[in-house]
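Deliverable D2.4 — example input (structure tokens):
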């Protein structure tokens, strides 16, 4: 059975209005997901920069990252 209107070829719909409704819902979900991902990774960057690392090489890298971050060189978003 072939549907008259389909989203991505596999989500059957009855009308163009229903297609628009599906697309609006999917777009909203994607926007929420993208916003969450940006906030999540920004939070991880802040957490990583706040860690105290005791290994000499890693500690020097962390110090440089913190310094670059303070100067605006590393962006969290």
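Example output (designed residues):
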């Amino acid at each position: 059975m072939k549907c008259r209107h389909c989203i991505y070829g596999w989500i059957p719909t009855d009308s163009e209005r229903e297609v628009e409704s599906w697309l609006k819902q999917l777009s909203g979900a994607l926007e929420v997901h993208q916003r969450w991902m940006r906030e999540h990774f920004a939070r991880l960057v802040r957490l990583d920069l706040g860690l105290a690392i005791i290994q000499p090489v890693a500690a020097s890298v962390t110090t440089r990252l913190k310094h670059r971050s303070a100067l605006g060189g590393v962006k969290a978003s």
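Helices lie at 16-49, 56-70.
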